[in-house]
């Protein structure tokens, strides 16, 4: 009986919101506000209706002014509600804009508000204490807002919306340009992508509220984002793996730090996404190889430094006594099939010996 009453109250609230929009909205923005209301109803367990969502996305593709007004209306709805289901639907709608919205709508989202160029999705104080279930959903609202902020921030660093179907060309072009990136640019991208995975790992432990299809949709979208992030990390780590002997000491330290952050996420990621994907398994394999490779390069550098100092000392003694000779064959080469970087270690040692 309590659920029926809450649903009835939700319907009444939706009708009241529509009536208020009809009275207060300007004629040119009424359709926008009504469109937002249709995808963010008070029904507690139903995600945005696909037909209404598609209509909203299409409406945002008409002009820059319309797209801007639509984003503003969506943000007003998000920050004006105290109902967890409505807030989650607003956040889901924002997520759909990022994933499959027209470019003009995505662009307006990325610069909202116009004065600051940041997205104020911060809902750290959101609480809906109407029922125990809405209290649980409130934790999801707070986390989901932080997650989307991180997704938008990561997308800005990369130069395209990470999981967007409309950014395919930009992503393809960037993949072609990775070889021209500076080492620090690649490490910066990895840093931002790892931050997104860390935020994913902070998802509430109460993964499901029984019968709540909104959370099923949220976890489905986040899972797709995760695979996109893994793919982008693999591309950049693959490029860095070809440059290990060219990394400076500071760059190798930064890379090692990012690899450690990734490894720290592994256990939680495997809990959240229990179905193993070859792409993800490939990431963990590459992370392990890179950590070993970076360590090997640093050992090689230290060995090269010691050999150089030793040769200077031997040269001094040879000048004094004339009976000591340094033979190149006396240098030590590390080779371990366990690392999978044997050729790299030989190449680094040869480079060290030539410059020593």
From TrEMBL:
<protein>
    <recommendedName>
        <fullName>ENTH domain-containing protein</fullName>
    </recommendedName>
</protein>
<feature type="domain" description="ENTH">
    <location>
        <begin position="24"/>
        <end position="162"/>
    </location>
</feature>
<keyword id="KW-0254">Endocytosis</keyword>
<dbReference type="GO" id="GO:0005545">
    <property type="term" value="F:1-phosphatidylinositol binding"/>
</dbReference>
<dbReference type="InterPro" id="IPR008942">
    <property type="entry name" value="ENTH_VHS"/>
</dbReference>
<dbReference type="GO" id="GO:0030136">
    <property type="term" value="C:clathrin-coated vesicle"/>
</dbReference>
<dbReference type="GO" id="GO:0005794">
    <property type="term" value="C:Golgi apparatus"/>
</dbReference>
<keyword id="KW-0472">Membrane</keyword>
<dbReference type="GO" id="GO:0006900">
    <property type="term" value="P:vesicle budding from membrane"/>
</dbReference>
<keyword id="KW-0333">Golgi apparatus</keyword>
<keyword id="KW-0968">Cytoplasmic vesicle</keyword>
<dbReference type="GO" id="GO:0000149">
    <property type="term" value="F:SNARE binding"/>
</dbReference>
<dbReference type="InterPro" id="IPR048050">
    <property type="entry name" value="ANTH_N_plant"/>
</dbReference>
<dbReference type="GO" id="GO:0032050">
    <property type="term" value="F:clathrin heavy chain binding"/>
</dbReference>
<dbReference type="InterPro" id="IPR011417">
    <property type="entry name" value="ANTH_dom"/>
</dbReference>
<dbReference type="GO" id="GO:0072583">
    <property type="term" value="P:clathrin-dependent endocytosis"/>
</dbReference>
<dbReference type="InterPro" id="IPR045192">
    <property type="entry name" value="AP180-like"/>
</dbReference>
<dbReference type="GO" id="GO:0005905">
    <property type="term" value="C:clathrin-coated pit"/>
</dbReference>
<keyword id="KW-0168">Coated pit</keyword>
<dbReference type="GO" id="GO:0048268">
    <property type="term" value="P:clathrin coat assembly"/>
</dbReference>
<dbReference type="Pfam" id="PF07651">
    <property type="entry name" value="ANTH"/>
</dbReference>
<dbReference type="GO" id="GO:0005546">
    <property type="term" value="F:phosphatidylinositol-4,5-bisphosphate binding"/>
</dbReference>
<dbReference type="InterPro" id="IPR013809">
    <property type="entry name" value="ENTH"/>
</dbReference>
